[in-house]
Amino acid sequence: MALAREAKPKGGFDFSAIEEKISVMMASVTVKDKAVFSRQLAMMFSSGIALMKAIAILGDQAENAKMKSALKKIKADIETGVTLSQAMGKFPDVFDDLYCAMVQSGEIGGVLDTVLNRLANALEKSAKMENEIKSASSYPKAVGGIAIVVFFAMTTFLLPTFAGIFKEMGATLPFITVLLLNISEFSRDWRRMLPLIVVLWLLMTAFKAYYKTPIGRVQIDRGMLYLPIIGELLKLIAVARFCNTFAMLTNAGVPMLSCFEIVGRTAGNQVICNAINNASLEVQQGGSLTEAFEKEHIFPGMAISMMRIGEETGELDKMLSKVGEFYEDEVEQAIKGLTSTLEPIMMVGIAALVGSILMSMYLPMFAVFEKLG
Fold first, then answer.
1. Name one GO cellular component term (predicted).
2. Closest by CA position to 229, among listed 366, 314, 339, 140
3. Looking at beta carbons, which pairs linking 106-114 to residues 24 or more positions away fall under 8 Å?
4. Segment 263-292, tens digit of pLDDT
5. Of 12, 97, 165, 357, which one's alpha carbon is 20 to 30 angstroms from that of 52?
């Protein structure tokens, strides 16, 4: 009887399956997740553990729900005779084109463990660069957020109190006080704020929609490259990513035209992607790689010169690796320089913001004291 009561009713929902699907949809596989997986799979594969068993073990141990689900399905595909790269290709949100191409080259050359170690090294470098960029951007975000909160707190709660005092004293209010009082009154009236919020939301939605169009993405990405400080940093990141990825692919035996296609899709900027595609067409027509990039005016002269030496000596992959390492260091230094530049600017900005509010409160009081005196 107890067993009968515990049995699931017919037509009942499998809540565990629904919960698993939701967790898979909500999860996202980070660069660090892929780097750890690559290192572990390479170690297990080189230790003599069968590929299918290694995938099964890593799938069971995976903490990321999306990675766990993908590895289970990849294991099932391998059991039916599908290659690892083909099985991974079914999950582009977990294993991108670059990853699948590298795995395929390792399968063809019989050096899968070596390729996986290279992938792990590259992904670890990429994760390190992402962390540096995030840490550099977290400071201005935090300080900017605090500044906005302080500004609205002072204008919404503190300034109206002084406004009542000024009115009773009959003080003549300077322009800055009138301006901030108007902002305070506006921010405290939700009927006025609501249209502004709606307009800002519509502008952001329109901007995102325009960015998704081919013309919009090119125009916005081109504008990003010409921003002061940030534009140069984006170019350095693009050069380092291109050189490292291209070197890794060519060293793994991937054909050059396939390298162009994969690297173009992972460029991160449509203008740079178009430059890589144009260079690919130039190479297909028999042109030189360095001459093709020289025409695009995207890569720095030093990178072009090093590529030319690599082509002339027949060691393009090694030269690109060195160029990639050099520009990775340049990116690291540029991020540190950006952080050190932003710190005093943000501090001065906050001081000016708070100082303007204090001036708006104390200037009318000085006027009143002069009258009384």
1. plasma membrane
2. 339
3. 106/252, 107/83, 108/253, 109/252, 109/253, 112/42, 112/45, 112/51, 112/84, 113/42, 113/45, 113/46, 114/42
4. 887 777 888 888 888 888 888 887 777 887
5. 97
